[in-house]
Write a structure and sequence with these properties.
The protein has one helix at 14-21, and strands at 2-5, 24-27, 30-38, 46-51, 57-62, 66-75, 78-89, 109-114, 120-124, 129-133, 141-142, 158-163, 169-173, 181-187, 190-197, 204-210, 216-224, 228-236, 245-249, 257-266, 269-277, 286-293. It is an all-beta fold.
């Protein structure tokens, strides 16, 4: 395990200790490939992310019920900026924008999974459910909820979606239920529990994706002392759930509220792109962060 220390604490006390912890970053299987920050008056609260196979185009969803498509710009291979191509309102199964009806906060889109034919799925919080969309302008296709969805804590529900290489859709709750994270898979028109994931040091699941071999990658986060976001990335071998392997743990406060995760195959290997939710603060940047998987 590698450890980097960028500064030394000079003051004691709880806050000083918390700030000192932000200097420690741990990575066993990732190499940082760059990051870029982006401030937008139109797009806030980005939570779900899918990167195109070219590593440039992307799709995203956010807390206010929008489907966003754009491009990442690069300089010498590293992230350098963000350009938006389109912002489209997500529609309900009635054909109305989900943001038009705030009862129960039905616009809180969190997870995104894209199929090769352009269709996609979105998971929502507050009213915990998953909808399928034939394209960006289509009305939602209703999917019957699993009974567990009604038991999930408000604003701690279906944060992550991932599409397996065999076409199976997976969704994951942010918080454990009965001490574990249930793993839900869509079989036909019904959700089933495929297994369980063990919690890891108080982290909550916020993003997920599969690589081409079927290994599952989970992005997790927690808030330390109510001040500093911390993230980690876990990997699970194909067909194996349980505890998984921690590939990376961020320093406390090193990044913002990283919530979205997507993988793409670059010429030099598998890359991981993460995006932060700016928590609805228009003057706070959205961060895109990229790593190369080396292990």
């Amino acid at each position: 395990m590698k450890t980097t220390l960028s500064q030394t604490c000079t003051r004691m006390g709880l806050l000083a200790v918390a700030l000192c912890w932000t200097t420690l970053s741990f990575a066993d299987g990732l190499v940082h490939q760059g990051a870029t920050e982006w401030i937008s008056e139109d797009v806030i609260g980005v939570s779900g992310l899918e990167i195109n196979p070219d590593g440039l185009g992307f799709s995203a969803v956010g807390d206010s019920g929008w489907f966003i498509q754009g491009r990442l710009t690069r300089e010498t291979g590293s992230l350098s900026g963000v350009e938006i191509d389109s912002i489209t309102p997500l529609l309900s199964d009635k054909g109305m924008p989900v943001a038009a009806r705030r009862t129960g906060d039905q616009a809180d889109a969190e997870g995104l999974a894209m199929a090769e034919d352009g269709s996609f799925w979105v998971s929502f919080e507050r009213w915990a459910h998953v909808s399928r969309y034939a394209d960006a302008t289509a009305s939602a296709e209703w999917i019957k909820d699993h009974p567990d969805f009604a038991r999930m804590s408000d604003n701690r529900q279906l944060e992550a979606l991932a599409l397996h290489p065999d076409g199976t859709l997976f969704t994951f709750p942010e918080n454990p239920l009965d001490g574990v994270f249930p793993v839900y898979v869509l079989r036909g028109k019904a959700w089933q529990i495929a297994g369980e994931i063990a919690p890891s040091d108080g982290f909550a699941i916020v993003g997920a994706d599969f690589d081409a071999d079927g290994s599952l990658y989970l992005l997790e986060r927690k808030l330390v002392l109510g001040l500093l976001w911390q993230n980690q990335l876990r990997r699970f071998a194909p067909g194996a759930l349980g505890q998984g392997e921690v590939l990376w743990t961020s320093a406390r406060g090193e990044y913002g509220n990283l919530e979205g995760l997507s993988l793409w195959d670059a010429p030099d290997g598998l890359r991981v792109v993460m995006v932060s939710d700016n928590n609805g603060k228009r003057n706070k940047p959205t961060q895109f962060v990229e790593f190369l998987v080396t292990d």
